[in-house]
Design brief:
Rossmann fold; disordered C terminus; globular
Length: 357
């Protein structure tokens, strides 16, 4: 049944532009949502940094994305400014959709307007249970793994999606492996170097410049000593087309981090290029990477290294076709559109088992 046009506010964090120039997973999802909702005829207002270029009406909460200004300060005041901007205009929307992590709960509690809150990061911290107690309707987890941290919450599970059709695809690959991520221990960069060296393959690393003290320490003390050789090439932070070319030209993408990845946009971007993903069995990655079909999923570095030769038997065209269907922008927006309509009273409840992927 067609969903009537809605007046929708999308609320992004002010740290990256929407869509981002390079790094910025949450902002890429917000940009995709805005574009597809606009295409479907909805009236979309975006609360974001003033240098955002997504279509629709823009309400700038800061003049420019904070990271582009080199600001690495306490985020609280900027998030409060974003919340206040939404509060001033909330009555003019049918639905507000916040992407502010736990700060979005403030809007959900304060607004009479139906509010969707999507969590893009970790929610398994010890203090999170208290904040999610008596959780309002409209909370979204981006994977079943993420939602499992708090099974008592009435989650809607909506997997992320991107417009992946333009991702480059070429079955003729180089011998090298690649890593795309951040300079943090839990993301597994040092482990990626170990896997590449065990396989005798070069590794290309795309990561944003370290900015926080923890990132700088990891870069200097862990990555630096292991990367000073010809088999590891640091490319810096790559914009979208450059990142896609890196993924498409690699033998495989390594994701050996040991943290509970809430989703993993790099995984679907790699698969859209036909490049298998080699990932640790943690977080949402097993929901994305089908072991032996889309890549290799194992419990540790030894297992990933031992099974790496299996990559040669994977059908790259098949993994591309699958991910374009499973994690398309249209499929993601179908899920959010139905949730918006239900909360705004524009259609009957979707029924038992409200999870949708």
């Amino acid at each position: 049944m067609p969903i009537p046009a809605l007046r929708i506010a999308q609320v992004a964090p002010p740290f990256e532009a929407v869509p981002p120039v390079a790094y910025g997973g949450t902002e890429r999802i917000v940009g995709t949502l805005v574009s597809e909702l606009q295409r479907r005829g909805h009236d979309v207002t975006l609360f974001a940094s003033g240098d955002s270029t997504a279509p629709g009406r823009l309400v700038p909460v800061v003049p420019r994305a904070l990271r582009s200004l080199g600001l690495n300060t306490e985020p609280g005041p900027y998030l409060i400014a974003t919340q206040l901007a939404v509060l001033r205009q909330a009555s003019s929307f049918d639905v507000v959709h916040a992407h502010l992590e736990f700060s979005g709960l403030v809007l959900a509690r304060a607004l009479a307007t139906p509010t969707v809150v999507t969590f893009h990061g970790r929610i398994d911290q010890p203090w999170s249970a208290g904040l999610l107690a008596e959780a309002p309707d409209g909370l979204v987890a981006i994977s079943a793994s993420q939602a499992y941290a708090h099974p008592e919450v009435p989650w809607s599970i909506i997997h992320n999606g991107l417009a992946l059709e333009a991702a480059p695809f070429d079955e003729r690959r180089g011998d090298g492996l690649c890593y795309v991520g951040r300079f943090m221990p839990e993301k597994g960069l040092v482990e990626a170097i170990e896997i590449a060296r065990r396989a005798g393959r070069p590794l290309r690393v795309a990561a944003k410049e370290p900015s926080t003290p923890a990132e700088k320490q990891y870069y200097e003390e862990s990555f630096g000593p292991t990367s000073r050789s010809a088999d590891v090439e640091y490319l810096g932070e790559l914009a979208g087309p450059e990142r896609d070319r890196l993924l498409a030209s690699s033998h495989a993408t390594l994701m050996p981090g040991d943290w509970p990845e809430p989703f993993g946009l790099v995984a679907i971007e790699s698969l859209a290029c036909g490049t298998p993903v080699v990932a640790r069995r943690t977080g949402a990655l097993p929901e994305i990477v089908r072991d032996g079909i889309d890549g290799i999923v194992a419990d540790d570095v030894a297992g990933l290294s031992r099974r790496l030769p299996e990559i040669d038997r994977i059908d790259r065209a098949a993994i591309r076709a699958s991910v374009l269907s499973r994690f398309s922008a249209e499929r993601m927006v179908d899920g959010y559109e139905a949730l918006y309509a239900r909360l705004a009273g524009r259609q009957e409840p979707v029924g038992a088992g409200r999870s949708r992927s």
